[in-house]
């Protein structure tokens, strides 16, 4: 089979439809040159993928990593809550799922979708991951970031994980996916992140759970349900994550298994109700899998850097009270330079004054000694 390809020049200037900011795309996009196209890239000799209102999408074979079809695969858009896949993938290996915590008021007050955390109850980290991936709790996302040592540390580690996966279109600014200037991902990156997540047993458990009992104050519980509607509607659906904000519009990444094979679909910036369209894209992926020349490849992660010295992790034991880490005030570059100059001048003045005082004191002592030795 022949595949439609697009020639890419040294650099292609791409414009995000959500922010209007231009960036330089590499000469050879991650996953192959055809994935640099802004339009539909599909194999010849078979029926084209079903139409969708999504601005960007990727259909891939999870088992082989082959990209079967794509549209604007590397277009950078606001990810909304699909970014929680990166939050989970980053933090699951770092946090003891049996650790019990009492969330901060800051975590409980996060805007947008919430699982309903309260400082009056205690939760296991395992509960927080369920709240994150099942009901898309922004409160759970912040609580997990605070357990991990604070927001700044968590964002740094999430972006490091994205680079390790070669998800280079992804810039994480919030653990929840709430819109923030500079935050972005792509349909290709969402597929990379979700594929890596499927290899993690706990990640797979969280995304495939339909309903669960969630802790409430005074030892009570209430039931939460997974927001991924295809877990109930699509045969073989494993799950993963959906998202929506008024700026990002609809986004989704999900995988299903049929006949021992797994197909994944990721969509970004969908204007309407995408569940039926995602199901049709999955159907198309299963129908052409193994019969066409792929248009690209989901690349493997980069070799992991040497692991840092392991830290002791608490298991069970007393409840940890989580409070947001205090961050020093940030100054812009000019203000910081001015502050540094002021500190330098002040230090010089103080140092000079001390030196002058010591010299003057020595001189006075010497004069008194001379005066005392006179007849």
UniProtKB/TrEMBL annotation:
This is D-alanyl-D-alanine carboxypeptidase DacF. PANTHER family: D-ALANYL-D-ALANINE CARBOXYPEPTIDASE (PTHR21581), D-ALANYL-D-ALANINE CARBOXYPEPTIDASE DACB (PTHR21581:SF33). SUPFAM superfamilies: beta-lactamase/transpeptidase-like. Its EC number is 3.4.16.4. Residues 1-24 form the signal peptide. Belongs to the peptidase S11 family. InterPro entries: Beta-lactam/transpept-like, Peptidase_S11, Peptidase_S11_N. The chain crosses the membrane at residues 344-365. The keyword Chloroplast does not apply. Residues 48-269 form the Peptidase S11 D-alanyl-D-alanine carboxypeptidase A N-terminal domain. Keywords: Carboxypeptidase, Cell shape, Cell wall biogenesis/degradation, Hydrolase, Membrane, Peptidoglycan synthesis, Protease, Signal, Transmembrane, Transmembrane helix. GO terms for molecular function: serine-type D-Ala-D-Ala carboxypeptidase activity.
């Amino acid at each position: 089979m022949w595949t439609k390809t697009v020639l890419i020049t040294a650099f292609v200037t791409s414009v995000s439809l959500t922010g209007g900011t231009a960036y330089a795309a590499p000469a050879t996009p991650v996953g192959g040159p055809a994935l640099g196209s802004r339009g539909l890239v599909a194999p010849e000799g078979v029926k084209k993928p079903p139409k969708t209102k999504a601005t960007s999408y990727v259909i891939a074979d999870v088992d082989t990593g082959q990209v079967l079809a794509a549209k604007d695969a590397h277009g950078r858009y606001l990810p909304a809550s699909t970014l929680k896949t990166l939050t989970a993938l980053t933090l699951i290996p770092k946090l003891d799922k049996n650790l019990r915590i009492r969330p901060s008021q800051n975590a409980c007050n996060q805007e947008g979708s919430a699982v309903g955390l309260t400082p009056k109850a205690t939760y296991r980290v395992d509960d927080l991951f369920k709240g994150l991936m099942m009901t898309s709790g922004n409160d759970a996302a912040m609580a997990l970031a605070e357990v991990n040592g604070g927001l700044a540390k968590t964002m740094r580690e999430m972006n490091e994980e994205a680079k390790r996966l070669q998800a280079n279109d992804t810039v994480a600014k919030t653990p929840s996916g709430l819109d923030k200037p500079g935050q972005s991902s792509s349909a290709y990156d969402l597929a990379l992140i979700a594929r890596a997540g499927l290899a993690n047993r706990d990640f797979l458990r969280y995304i495939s759970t339909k309903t669960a009992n969630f802790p409430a104050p005074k030892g009570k519980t209430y039931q939460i349900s997974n927001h991924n509607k295809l877990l109930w509607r699509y045969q073989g659906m494993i799950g993963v994550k959906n998202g929506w904000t008024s700026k990002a519009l609809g986004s989704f990444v999900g995988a299903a298994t049929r006949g021992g094979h797994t197909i994944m679909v990721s969509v970004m910036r969908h204007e309407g109700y995408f569940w039926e369209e995602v199901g049709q894209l999955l159907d198309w992926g299963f129908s052409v899998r193994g019969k066409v020349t792929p248009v690209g490849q989901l690349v493997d992660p980069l070799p992991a850097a040497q692991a840092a010295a392991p830290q002791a992790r608490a298991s069970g034991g007393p409840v940890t009270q989580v409070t947001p880490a205090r961050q020093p005030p940030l100054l812009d570059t000019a203000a910081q330079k001015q502050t540094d100059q002021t500190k330098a001048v002040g230090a010089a003045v103080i140092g000079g004054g001390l030196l002058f005082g010591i010299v003057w004191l020595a001189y006075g002592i010497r004069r008194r000694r001379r005066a005392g030795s006179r007849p």
